[in-house]
Here is the input.
Amino acid sequence: MQITLKSGAAEKQRAACVAVGLWADGSLSDAASALDAASGGQLVEIASAGDINGKLGQSLMLHRLPGVAAKRVLLVGLGAAEDFDRRAFRTAQAAAAAALVGARIRDAVSYLADIECRGGQLAWRVRSAAEEAFAAAYRFDAFKSSGGKSKVKRLKKLTLASTSRSRRAKAKAGLARARAVAAGRNLARDLGNTPPNVCHPSYLAKQAKALKKQFKSLKVEVLDEAGMGKLGMGSLLAVSRGSRQPAKLIAMQHRGGKKRDKPVVLVGKGVTFDTGGISIKPAATMDEMKFDMCGAASVFGVMRAVCELDLPINVVGVVPAVENMPGGDATRPGDVVTSMSGKTIEILNTDAEGRLILCDALTWAGKFKPGVVIDIATLTGACIVALGHENAAVLGNDDALIDALRSAGDSSGDTCWPLPMSDAYDKDLESNFADVANIGGRAGTITAGCFLGRFTADYRWAHLDIAGVAWKSGKVKGATGRPVPLLMQYLFDRVDAG
Ligand code: BES
Ligand code: MN
Ligand code: ZN
Here is the structure.
């Protein structure tokens, strides 16, 4: 889909549809008022008839309004004006985008990004509106025999319109960021959705090389099992033992900043399929464990967006990629392994494998002399119990970093919420036979964070547990591309702060 900007009168737009807003008290947005005037009061009449009441996220498609050039008018509920904050703005944009994509039309002009909201400047509004539209238009049919070539009309062109002509530069900057974030998010979704017989560790390594081809500035390094063995990554390799697919450790570097600027290092869990290993998972919904590489996918997405925008900062993406299978050579519960850090680990449950690959990747990440390290992982089912599917969990050893991620989450709509870390939880990981056990305690998300915390004492670090937000189940099953928007916002905030 192509998104462009323009200004002009709403009633004059020649398009399949023009989208405008209706407030909960029955009043019309500026563009809606213009349509109402052009059509001799039709919109006010329809609104007062009660077909739509302006509740946030409602929408109503109207056809052939007299005096209006567009074939259709989409009226979108905005809620109460006093409640119209950034969250409500996004909800309205998402509702409009869903209605436009569902309408099976080819083009539309939306005046909804023009509506001011509390806390949202023009660049933010254009970016958010565009990101919601790109997300709604996403489809994944690479593995359907039709190859996605259905005859259904798709929304190809969306114009974000404004009734006034001013501040075009700001809107353009917002749109450029939206395009990059959307492309990165779509890449993350594609990788997450790709079936696990295709998307294995070597496939991810190939993706990194493909990204390097596309963006010449990207530096890519891939370690194989022998290389990891030499570095002493006994923990990561223990997870991979049961699989026929060899593990890969991938690093992607974008050096857009000054040479001496310490990089942001992102480490994404890349378990391309998690059977649980010998501590095998139950059969129901096990297919969803193909999404256990969504942390890695988000790192790919961010690197893509960072390269496309050529952000003036240093960012390194690290992806430990493995498949967790119960083969004849698989790790047993009770095995003790030695991590790259030198710490020994008693593997009490082979299904707690994410932390086992991350600890070695996090130790390795130290070689990039990071300013901050953020790991992203579908780490614990307990995270869904704690926070459901709304918020990712954020933990770490640096309150300023955690606050920055929370704030980036709030402004991108891709939110996270903090969980505590302390010695009281950490001691649940004591082992009778090794330095640390790989499971412990009832607070599963926190003890997993504490486990990682034992390997990250040398730098500022935060951990995002995305188990509840990385994909959707049921009829809408599929990867969400979260937390690409959150991470990109965090990077934008750093860029904009100079
Ligand atoms: N990939 C899973 C976590 C997960 C499970 C995410 C379900 C989303 C939905 C992870 O590797 C895992 O299996 N964790 C275990 C840890 C336990 C053995 C301590 C879990 O959460 O059950
Ligand atoms: Mn597991
Ligand atoms: Zn897992």
Observations:
- The chain has a mean pLDDT of 97.
- DSSP finds 15 helices and 20 strands in the chain.
